[in-house]
User: Fold this.
Amino acid sequence: MLSISNLQAVIGDKQILKGLDLEVNAGEVHAIMGPNGAGKSTLASVLAGREDYEVTGGSVLFEGKDLLEMAPEERAAEGIFLAFQYPVEIPGVSTTNFLKTALNEIRKHRGQDSLDAVQFLKLMKEKMKLVNIDQSLLSRSLNEGFSGGEKKRNEIFQMAMLEPKLAILDETDSGLDIDALRIVADGVNQLRSPERATIVVTHYQRLLDYIVPDYVHVLYKGRIVKSGPKELALELEEKGYDWIKAEAI
Amino acid sequence: MTPSYASYNDFKNQLLTAFRTNEERMNGASKTPVHQLRRSALKQFDLLGFPTIRHEEWKYSNVNGLLKEAFALDETTTLTAEDLAPLEIPNLDGNILYFVNGRYHAELSRLVSPTDQVQITSFAEALKADPDFIESHFAHYADYQENAFTALNTALATDGVVVRVPDNTTVEQPIILRFITDARDKSIASQPRNLITVGKNAEVMMAESYRTLGEQASFVNVVTEIVLGRDARMQYYKVQNETEKAYHIGTTQVNQTDNSHFYSATVTLNGNFVRNNLNIVLNGQHAEAFMYGLYMPNGRQHVDNHTLVDHAMPNSYSNELYKGILDDNSTGVFNGKIFVRPDAQKTNAYQSCKNVVLSPGASMNTKPQLEIFADDVKCSHGTTTGKLNDEALFYMRSRGIPKDEARTLLLYAFSQDVLSQIKIQPIREYLERVVTEKLGE
Ligand SMILES: Nc1ncnc2c1ncn2[C@@H]1O[C@H](COP(=O)(O)OP(=O)(O)O)[C@@H](O)[C@H]1O
Ligand SMILES: [Mg+2]
Assistant:
């Protein structure tokens, strides 16, 4: 589904991704771990199409198509979703209005009819239950004045609404208490299917108790330096990253 | 073609001559106090002349373009109700008055409020029918000693509206003044003049709307004087949506007494050169003024909002929010003055001006000016001018919303802080539609 090879990206004159390789197949969950500043969010942003980053080498294929050629909105329509590490406040636009616009744009791109107000509300009710989110939150300006937990939960709600093929969660677990964490994990797990894949970027193995990954990768200094089964996450939790750093040199 | 220096004075001479020609036709009426006042206003206009950018109040707003045009001072028109149909605001009910080239047209207008709720007459008619009333208010509030355009209007204005709301009355239907310039055949200048008095504990909603028909240039130089009695409440909206060849200079002068509430929104959608002066004197305790503004110039348009809130008495409150969206090579000016007089203790005054500049060719000049002479006051002001938020744009695009639509959605939301304040629903809806259209351009 997703095939990243030798990906290199810079911001300003700073090289952040330095030849990154990653293969994700449909049905899989991949966890990406790594110390602060390793380039995890950069990878997520490059995949979503943030223009601040310049890709200077390598390729990214999504279902055989050149992802790097696509505008961010095309990537979304093709089925990529990024749950932001720091969701952005959108003053004056409610989550409801925002999602209705987004969903119908995506449907338009796929040649599907727009959902009318009734259909949209029905879908929303269904997904609200899934992530245990309150209607009052959805009528407010998107992310404006939301608590950290509310923002993260709203990201998962958006994911549930848009039903992406590939979801990338960038530290969605940070700042969440155990209940919120479970809700987020439930949201992700409900979406798990043989046609979909998930990349979970996280610092802590805690989340991986709930979203059990097929593979764990360590991103360090702009490259995947180690990959392994889910047990690798436990090892990292125990030993930290120093041994990896030593190995990587 | 660059006109010679002498031609800059042509427009001024034309206006001075027009005054004298009028005067000769007046016979005995030229002795009236109102006319004497007009005469002194004309003298003042002659003395001041059109302002140049050396004038502090006109530093960023150059009226040279205006002076290069050749305007007819012609109130005649062949305009019919049919011509006006495309300009109609859908679903608008109420008292709708049409003024063409500054002159009131009863046959195009519709007055629906009973006369015990409100008396609405044309300025020309009121001047004949009740000169004492006009004399007791006309030019008592809008200063013509310093402002050349107000002096010009005071001297030359022949028509406009006079609205009188009696004490303890709520005018149920809004009053909509539609000023149309018929610039289909030639460039037209007009000088409308409005006087609104709202009695004690009375309430009224009013809107001024400005449109131009035709391809030629237009110049509207309007002055509106508003007097609010004790406990009076007024909603006042000024909507300006003229052509790329429109010059618009307007002053709204508001005098508030004890516990009166004034809510205003000034929305500038289109025009070549627009200057809105909104001056409010809070001349009573517990008086409150709310001022909202939205302007969205594009092309080479220029929009200048000058506001002045004069806190003259204790315990008064003012709150101001102006927002601008500037595109292409447009320019904007916001100058917000707040005076707090020595006696005006316990004043609360808030001012904010926020701008989004969409293109590197556009620019915005903001200048808050606070002059505070009392010590027990709460004042705050802030201005921001920046690009559209890239982070927000990316966030929206990453959810599948195309760039242009994301931009429109963000800017529309930005404008809503102002438009949502408009309580005459058909006008708000009309503005929301025009704003959306303009954002989509
Ligand atoms: N806008 C930026 N300008 C300059 N450097 C940046 C910018 N964004 C991220 N970086 C740098 O890139 C590196 C990787 O950052 P990031 O991808 O956020 O790491 P992670 O998510 O793994 O903690 C860090 O050294 C960070 O300081
Ligand atoms: Mg990060």
Q: What stands out?
A: The pocket of adenosine-5'-diphosphate (ligand 1) is lined by residues A 11-12, 14, 16, 34, 36-42, 52 (CB under 6 Å). DSSP finds ten helices and twelve strands in chain A. The mean pLDDT of chain A is 92. Chain A touches chain B through 32 residues (CB under 8 Å).
